[in-house]
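Posting this for the archive.
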Amino acid sequence: MTHDYAQKVRALGAPLEDKIIEWRRYYHAHPELSLHEFSTCDQIERELDALGFEHKRVAKTGIIATIRGEAPGSYSSSGMPCTRIALRADIDALPVEEQNKVSYVSQNKGVMHACGHDCHIAMMLGALHILKACQSAIKGEIRVIFQPAEEISDGAQMMIDAGALEGVSAIYGAHIWSEVQAGTISCAPGQRMAHTDWFRIDIEGVSAHGSMPHKGVDALVVGAEMVTGLQVLVSRDVSPFEPVVVTVGEFHSGTARNIMAGSAYLTGTIRTWSKQLRTEVPKRLKRIATDIADSFGATACFTYEEGNPGLSNTPEEAKRCERAVRQLLGDAAVSDYRGTLSGEDFAYYLEHVPGVFAFIGARNEDIGANYPQHSCFYTIDESALVGGSMVAALWALDYLQEHA
């Protein structure tokens, strides 16, 4: 039966390719920041209404839609589905000024779908059209989660708190990905993304006239030393076999060109692969920052904030996803991508239910689709989108068929 579903999904998906690209371009042109995705939600809900799917707005700018299977035995006499699974797409954009010269360039100044969530919406809508055509054969229920605020790591937990996972047996998610070649998909089992945590270092020195540096303690110089010094943890304080990234993303200091800065602050992110290092690295960073500040006669306050946990695919659901990729796109479409130290709040869902997170390859150097996520030049090979829609749909159909 799975092969029969694969043939049907291919037949239903292929004619949708142009429409999926059209959806992607619409959402790309109308990006909205985390927790401000109001127009995005309005447009998604119009698509859901056209398909006849129930839906409700939750968590301010999130949507939970329901595909009710129509096969006999889908629901008990009390109205409970025999099986309920979930599909998730995130919908928010980034504070990036787009530099691409395309007809569908962002119309919202300073906001861009630089991470591909426009693609996630479009691929999910494509999957919903496929599943709508299969609804009479679906036994059970599919919950569809359109999630806000992934970029600030709040959205998944907000949706969970709103009941998105109630009664859910398994979940599927995906990310369009610039490091995976277009036409291929990676959905390997085990850990795929890193623990994603945050830090801030507040430095207090002593301000002075710029011509009299010996009269003060230059917090800017202390901060500059820290930017370099923190990397000693990666290069000398952690085994080369342990993936770790420490990135300083902000450095703020000074008030005027002739005043030596009396204070400064740095903010950044810590990415770790192992749970043990996730616990140890903040302590080591605090030690380094404090020692550097002491050596200059300044003080440093280190603040650490835990973010997303590492993301790990359940072996069984990763296998199901890989099977879908092979059946729909061929054996060569299975990518051997090893994973990334990027983070994703989809990991929170996987702490509650088994599931899989797939990387949909969109890299194509021949058309300039080789910029990383979050770049102002980020773009994709749009031919990858229809495959993403089909794999999501087949994963869902295969799961419900097996657990009917």
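Residues 195-308 form a domain with the Alpha-Beta Plaits fold (CATH 3.30.70.360). The longest helix spans residues 275-296.
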